[in-house]
From TrEMBL:
Signal peptide positions on this chain: 1-33
Keyword Amino-acid biosynthesis set for record: no
Transmembrane segments: none
Protein name: Parvulin-like PPIase
Domain of life: Bacteria
Residues covered by the PpiC domain: 213-316
InterPro entries: OMP_Chaperone_SurA, PPIase_dom_sf, PPIase_PpiC, Trigger_fact/SurA_dom_sf
Source organism (scientific name): Sphingomonas glacialis
Classification of source organism: Bacteria, Pseudomonadati, Pseudomonadota, Alphaproteobacteria, Sphingomonadales
Gene3D superfamilies: 3.10.50.40, Porin chaperone SurA, peptide-binding domain
Keyword terms, alphabetized: Isomerase, Rotamase, Signal
Length: 467
């Protein structure tokens, strides 16, 4: 990622931005509360010692029996339903493994607070669904569980074994699945959303008027700062940016730090979604200027805004109603050769030179197998690859290639060397979304809004006892 920086100066009022909902196993909603133990003074220490003395405990006690880790002690009771420490630990283990997060002890404690809130929400959703006589059978849960296992590249049996190795259990995952299925079914029954043709046509007309204008997919981390804390918060934001660039908190490091954001987008990994030119103009001028100067997959900040600092990540841009060349689908053949272990740099350079020389002689995909056999290389076919799904370094190359041409060799000592041969290209077609597509999008937005309102009501009315 490229970065831009800004220096801290005097600050004004604070602000935040809105966003939508999160997906199963994608992220944990809510901000992370900062917690620390209360300091113990001399009087507290003396009181503790007096309590121990009064117990008359032996100096070297013999323990009869052992602590059984399978015994579940309640951590929270939600309308009578118990959430145990085991429930929390298993869910934490699952999400850490799924997102490849590496956390310190302090970060882990903060992360557990987020998981507790997520489990409370799931419990409320399941309870509300059951009160409305919404039933999710074991077969439905197992079917979804099998799908999740396949997404992990495992059979259901292998998934159970895998979950045990990471300190989780299939029970934890199935509980999350039950909550997701129960809540979705409840919403389908209780939330009646009607989007009329007049509304749909108005949206389509608006899209037509905006055709050719640019939309920006943006993610944001906002850190609130009073004037006297500006240097401290600015330094914190710089540390976040360095960590995001190194990706030392897992694949979605930006999403990890977005949960510390003071904006409402913390619940969705800092995602502002796609912003039109008009929506973009409503942001602080400093953010607008930064976003318009950025290229996709570019990180900028810390940027001073009213009330604090923002870190901005531009995910992508697109033209409304205009075909994006990066959406073209390619038919490719990949020629790849692995380097033997212990190869010297000189030997590797010689192999690369030979590979480059022979691959450049390829005149169409019909010659790929012949050249690969000469090199002793492997050939892999792929019939549908979008240009925008390729690594950034290859996108510009593929845009310029003609059918039958190959890319320059690329790779590494670990992965070997390879080249892509372009066998065909299906250009993207510009289109204005149809009525049903627009209607479906609008209905989903309104259902999500109503779902958030219902969940807020459930939280407000719930009886939650912490232990």
């Amino acid at each position: 990622m490229k970065t831009d920086t800004a220096k801290p100066t005097r600050l004004g009022r604070s602000f935040g931005f809105g966003a939508a909902i999160i997906a199963l196993l994608a992220a944990s909603g809510g901000s992370i509360a900062q917690t620390a133990p209360a300091p113990a003074g001399p009087e507290a220490a003396a009181s503790d010692q007096a309590g121990v003395t009064a117990l008359d405990l032996p100096k070297n006690p013999t323990i009869f029996g052992k602590v059984d880790p399978t015994i579940r002690k309640p951590t929270a009771i939600v309308n009578g339903a118990v959430i145990t420490g085991t429930d929390i630990d298993q869910r934490v283990a699952l999400l850490l493994a799924a997102r490849d997060l590496k956390l310190s002890a302090q970060e882990m404690a903060q992360y557990k607070l987020v998981i507790v809130r997520q489990l409370i929400d799931e419990t409320l959703e399941i309870q509300q669904a059951k009160s409305a006589d919404v039933k999710i059978g074991p077969d439905e849960i197992n079917k979804s569980y099998d799908t999740v296992a396949r997404n992990f590249g495992k059979t259901p049996t292998e998934m159970r074994a895998y979950l045990r190795t990471i300190g989780s259990a299939d029970r934890s995952l199935k509980r999350q699945i039950e909550a997701e299925l129960s809540w979705n079914r409840y919403l389908r029954r209780k939330v009646d959303v009607n989007v009329g043709d007049e509304e749909v046509n108005a949206i389509i007309d608006k899209i037509k008027k905006q055709q050719g204008s640019t939309e920006y997919h943006v993610r944001e981390i906002y850190l609130k700062a009073d004037a006297d804390r500006a240097p401290e918060v600015f330094a914190q934001a710089q540390q976040m940016m360095q960590s995001i660039q190194k990706r030392d908190k897992g694949e979605d490091t930006f999403g990890y730090y977005a949960r510390l954001s003071d904006a409402t987008t913390r619940a969705t990994g800092g995602d502002l979604d796609w912003l039109s030119e008009q929506q973009l103009s409503q942001l602080p001028a400093a953010l607008v200027e930064a976003i318009k100067s950025m290229t996709p997959e570019h990180l900028a900040g810390p940027i001073e805004v009213p009330g604090g600092f923002s870190i901005i990540y531009l995910v992508d841009t697109r033209k409304i109603g205009v075909a994006d060349p990066l959406d073209a689908r390619l038919t490719l053949k990949q020629v790849s050769e692995r380097f033997p272990e212990g190869i010297t740099q000189e030997q590797a350079n010689a192999r690369v030179a030979e590979f480059a020389k022979l691959s450049s002689t390829i005149k169409g995909c019909g010659e790929v197998a012949k050249v690969a056999a000469t090199l002793g290389a492997d050939v892999v076919d792929n019939d549908s690859v979008r240009i925008k799904d390729l690594p950034v370094a290859l996108r510009e190359i593929m845009l310029k290639l003609q059918v039958g041409e190959s890319t320059p060799p690329f790779g590494s000592a670990k992965d070997g060397i390879r080249s892509l041969v372009l066998c065909g290209r299906d250009e993207a077609v510009a289109n204005i979304p149809g009525m049903e597509q627009v209607r479906s999008t609008m209905e989903n937005q309104r259902v999500n809004l109503r779902a958030n309102q219902l969940l807020r009501d459930l939280r407000r009315d719930a009886i939650v006892e912490y232990r």
